[in-house]
Amino acid sequence: MAKVLIIDDEPGVCWALRRTFEAGGHAVETAGTAEQGLPKAKGKDLVFLDIGLPGMNGLDALTKLTGTPVVVITAHGTVDNAV
Predict the structure, then answer these.
(1) Has this prediction a pTM greater than 0.85?
(2) pLDDT band at 41 (very low <50, low <70, confident <90, very high)
(3) Domain boundaries in the chain?
């Protein structure tokens, strides 16, 4: 069982990812902002991180998530963000 954290301000995205991972037997937590999510990241096996968050954006939060695999997600991708 993996411990997964989803940091996204869209409740529908959190719901869909939570449902998918919980169906596979994984433990899931969610947070709506980077400020809420960063303290929860310790000990997680995987973090899903939205780029477009209120407050601290996901790219800034990414620099603080060392040692944990992170999947960066966004609905508003650009080439610059991808690079």
Answers:
(1) yes
(2) very high
(3) 1-32
